[in-house]
Design goal:
This protein has helices at 2-21, 24-75, 79-117. 90% of the residues lie in helices and 0% in strands. It is mostly helical and 124 residues long.
Length: 124
């Protein structure tokens, strides 16, 4: 996200510098550069969010495969083995729930940062 902030600062600096120089062409060019930088930043942030979603999906698939493996082992297990397998399943479920909460938190934070860093006309 430092990259996002840095790009926005550069875009804002270019816009201010263009308007201070007094040249209409320079100000227009700086404004266009600023718009392009904001658009590129939004695309980068969206790509980062998609990568995080894909990583999480891969982790989820691995967890579900392991869970199914344990459930299959439980079918032919003794009572003592079933207790151990059940404990593993409960532990995995706890880790999965924690991971889901963390992903949701990360997505909310990214969305909030994107809203905060996106310049909107009219102050909205």
């Amino acid at each position: 996200m430092n990259l996002l902030l840095r790009r926005l600062m550069i875009a804002a600096g270019l816009a201010v510098a263009g308007s201070l120089c007094g040249g209409e062409d320079r100000a227009g060019a700086a404004a266009e550069k600023a718009k392009a930088a904001v658009k590129a930043t939004a695309v980068d942030a969206a790509a980062e969010m998609q990568k995080a979603k894909d990583d999480f999906k891969n982790q989820t698939d691995a967890i579900l495969a392991e869970r199914q493996k344990l459930i299959d082992q439980m079918k032919g297990a003794t009572e003592e083995q079933k207790k151990a397998i059940k404990a593993k399943l409960e532990e995995q479920m706890k880790h999965f729930a924690d991971a889901m909460r963390e992903l949701g938190r990360q997505q909310r934070d990214e969305a909030r940062k994107m809203r905060e860093n996106t310049a909107r006309p009219g102050g909205r």
